[in-house]
Amino acid sequence: MSKKHTIHPENCRNRIRETVTFCGMTITLSGKYACEWSIMKECNGKITVTVYPNRVSARKEFNKYK
């Protein structure tokens, strides 16, 4: 059997995955490979960041804005 890899969050980089403009807001999905994902909403100069524990829940929420 092959050895399973362990993903260490400190070795992952946070990357912007997708950006969408929706109703005057700029919505950005960013995240690490398997650790922490976030959605940033920018509207009228204010930025709101919502953090999600994994990609599945973040992508599910992000797809509502597409």
Compact overview of the structure:
The protein is mainly β and 66 residues long. The chain has one helix at 55-62; strands at residues 15-22, 25-31, 37-43, 46-52.
Polypeptide structure, described:
By secondary structure, the protein is mainly beta. It has one domain (16-65). It is built from 1 helix and 4 strands; from the N terminus they run ββββα. Strands 1-2-3-4 form a 4-stranded antiparallel sheet. A hairpin with a 2-residue loop joins strand 3 and strand 4. The termini are far apart.
List the helices and strands and how they pair.
Blueprint: E1 15-22, E2 25-31, E3 37-43, E4 46-52, H1 55-62
Antiparallel strand pairs: 1-2, 2-3, 3-4
Helix-strand pattern, N to C? EEEEH
Percent helix: 10-25%
Read across the widest sheet, the strand sequence of neighbours is 1-2-3-4
Instruction: Catalogue the unreliable spans.
Output: none
Give the tags:
66 residues, mainly beta, four-stranded antiparallel beta sheet, 4 strands
